[in-house]
Amino acid sequence: MYLILTASKDTYVTNRKLSSNDAKFANVGNASSLDLFKLQSENKLVKPQAELTLNAIPSVGHSFDLIDANGNTQTYEYIAGVSVPANKQIQIGASIKTTVDETFTVINALSQTFEAIEKSNNKIILEQKTAGFNSETNNSSVSAAISLTNFRIKEFSKILLHFDYDKIKKHFSISNNQNFSAKLKLFDISTGQVKPKNFTASVFPLSKSFDEGIGNDINSFGQEGWANFITASRDDDTLVYDTWSISGLRSKGTRDDLNIDIITGSNNVAYDNKQLFIKGNEDLSIDITNFVSESLSNQLHNNGFVIEFHDDIDQNSNTYFVKRFGSRHLKNKFMSPRIDFSFDDSFTKPDNIIYTNNSTRLFLENKQGNFNKNLYFTSSNILDTSKDQLSASISFQDFNVSAYATQSLDALGQQKSGSYYVDFNIDMFSSPLHGYLTGSGKVEADLKWHIVVNDNNNLNTLIKSQKITISTGSNLPQTEKFLISDIRYNFNKPGKKDENMFFVSFIDTIANLDAIKIPYRRKGENLGEVHYSVYDANSDREIIPFETLQKGTKMSYEDGDYYFTLFRSSLFKDRQIKFKFFLKDYNNLIIKNDKIFRL
Question: Is residue 215 scored above 60 in pLDDT?
Fold first, then answer.
């Protein structure tokens, strides 16, 4: 199954300072682009800032040096006793937070060329009072407990995204599909302008929700609103603003921490979801399965994501301007932010053949007309496979193997009416089967399904009996095939209004068949594992790629036909599409089908 979920909200926030406007208060939620940039020491209108972070509680005697705008060194030292602001001595608190609070107070107790302007659990934002390049100075700390950056003029942006998971929860259950993947994709829309290269971008979950806003001025940032660099959202009922813990989303911590903007890890595991951009024109494609899985299983609240420069890039002295991605407001929805979900929900009903030393799943479907109906164990009780009430056996002369059946589940983890399966893995060297296989490599065995009533088998009810071939595979003829594909809507499978189901048949055009005078549909070939891809019929742009790792585009097979479900998103609206097919088990052949569909 391959699902595309497009963004429900997106914007970016920045502290750009223009002669006419301060972008800290601007909103660009309705803009057509999402801009990621950092301008280092480029703007004399901006006051230099530094970040002081306590990684642990400092020990007595630990200190840090702040260099004021006049070049003078101001040394602050941690002590065990009561703080002495006049001597720049700071009392060590019982926790990092209380130590941060005391540090903040002591720094602002004296009149300096700098001041502490914001704080969170472990971080303080320092700012020179005078704008301009002359106020940029180099700070220092030799203690591992204290991280301190230099006073620098830095204008930067961060991209905010939100996706509504409720739209995909109706298609699959996270508890039943642990091996799914989720990949965040943004698309580069920069053209002739200069773009940064050799940088790394990271993505993290947000600790706070945000409002998208309606601003769209990305040139002069003249439209105030929220979300912005300072404010995340506003409650429509109380009209109370919710600000970021530190402006620019600079307060970070793990999932259970308070007063943070960005969640950097959970369960003692740091998130490391990032991508290196070498040339600068690459699209963004980052695997975010880890924290999406936590959100879908209700461990992590879905407030959205932030895309920012990696810490190494954020703290270096270089400028990166400007990496531009398409927003959800672009007319061309191909370029909109999206998450691609994929997992393997395919199944194969073998053509009455089971290969030795390979796991093979055999299915029983109890049909009444065109509908599947559950089997009954008694006149009033539906058969319960969890109580071993249904079994399948394969026998040939004195060889016999059996297994209890399991009721099939759909992608939501719900039982499928009237559908049951067993898994067999028959060893070709087991006795007495091996003796029968040595001659021709295959035998025609009996497959029987029974409702199991008791251990003596005298009351067991035969449900279905059929012939099945047990083969080593070595005796199969190797013939040349010239394959063509036929694809058509599947009108016989139940679906929903946002789903389209397709049949695909692969026909060998050089196979020797008996001549028949009336038209008929030939049975398709079983070619093993086959994947589909979807592309736009007009632009030839790929919409859904072959996803072979998680097998999200693997098609199911039954009785000569492959089939799959295409889940529609805004990408498919009023669009003409075509398909390609990847025959993984048949020499990695790719077959292109020219039939056009409009969803």
Answer: yes
